[in-house]
Design a protein that fits this description.
With 297 residues, the chain is α+β, with helices and mostly antiparallel strands. It has helices at 29-38, 41-45, 74-82, 103-114, 133-142, 167-181, 273-296, and strands at residues 12-14, 18-23, 55-59, 65-69, 90-96, 119-124, 156-158, 184-186, 192-201, 205-214, 217-218, 222-225, 228-236, 242-243, 245-246, 251-257, 266-270. The structure holds guanosine-5'-diphosphate.
């Protein structure tokens, strides 16, 4: 692919971390995301009303932001990883304080490790009488997680998603982790982005929630998204407001695609419709070839 610009020599600026919530079923991933979403910019701007677009941003009093992927669970993470999408910077590992470490807790740990993504532990349900956070810490440590209070570098925060306790501590821990990682992105030049969710709407056609990793996505640009292509007709922010541009770590909905992409697909900007068509056709051919090969096996 001929890129319009390269990253070489471009100025890099700090960007918000992109965070995924993982953990065992029923340990409170959805509840935690709900609680965090309530603290988000969108919730504040829209008077508490938020729409589900696959990601949301929390802005801290310091002005720093955190982008949360709004799909809990390991399937989404694995699907994205399988497509080579390095979309997540940090994993929040949710462990219920009463239940402790369970099979999917370990699975999440190994996913994060394989992807080389640091973990911040959220011990949830600390409001419960049966909560035993100290036991959870020992369990995690015995599974090889090097917790900060034991001399390692994995932060642990105690929270209650339903009682909304410790959310600010969790957000601060994520920011600290992000500072340590010195996450930076090129702002100028064509965007590189990833799809986190895609749907078809009768009126709007196929649309995708995407997170820009570098550069700036601009309305009107020709794009290839996975094996699909299109010209960006509209960019909307978290509250559905039309915007001209999307910058790094900002989740947006993009409209104008000719087909439905998949979570984890990459978004690249090309210079013309012709190139977009060509690239898309090539990628479709390759997908079909891979599919036939699989069927043949
Ligand atoms: P998920 O499967 O990991 O997404 O878990 P959910 O968010 O669906 O939560 C599972 C159950 O645990 C629900 O009944 C929640 O109300 C409950 N739950 C979640 N967080 C807390 C918490 O902090 N305290 C208590 N007491 N219950 C919680």
């Amino acid at each position: 692919v001929k890129r319009l610009h390269s990253n070489v020599g471009a100025e890099l600026l700090p960007r918000a971390p992109v965070v995924t919530v993982m953990g065992h079923v029923d340990h409170g991933k959805t509840s935690l995301l709900d609680a965090l979403r309530q603290t988000s910019l969108a919730a504040k701007e829209a008077g508490g009303i938020t729409q589900h677009i696959g990601a949301f941003v929390v802005r801290m009093p310091s002005g720093a932001s955190i982008t949360f992927l709004d799909t809990p669970g390991h399937a989404a993470f694995s699907a994205m990883r399988a497509r080579g999408a390095a979309v997540t910077d940090i994993v929040v590992l949710v462990v219920a304080a009463d239940d402790g470490v369970m099979p999917q807790t370990l699975e999440a740990m190994s996913h994060a490790k394989a992807a080389n993504v640091p973990i911040v532990v959220a011990i949830n349900k600390c409001d419960k009488p049966a909560a035993n956070p100290e036991r959870v810490k020992l369990q995690l440590a015995s599974e090889g997680l090097l917790l900060e209070e034991m001399g390692g570098d994995v932060q642990v925060v105690q929270v209650s998603a339903t009682q909304r306790i410790g959310l600010n501590d969790l957000e601060e821990a994520l920011l600290l982790q992000s500072e340590l990682m010195e996450l930076k992105a090129r702002i100028d030049g064509p965007a590189q982005a990833y799809v986190v969710e895609a749907r078809i709407d009768k009126g709007r056609g196929p649309f995708a929630t995407a997170i820009v990793k570098a550069g700036t996505l601009i309305c009107g640009q020709h794009v290839v998204v996975g094996a699909e292509w299109g010209r960006i007709r509209a960019i909307r922010d978290m509250v559905g407001k039309l915007t001209e541009k999307a910058r790094p770590a900002m989740p947006v909905e993009i409209e104008g695609l000719r087909g439905l992409p998949m979570a984890g697909d990459d978004v690249i900007v090309v210079e013309s419709e012709e190139r977009a068509r060509m690239l898309s056709a090539g990628r479709k051919k390759k997908l079909e070839k891979d599919r036939l090969q699989k069927v043949g096996e």
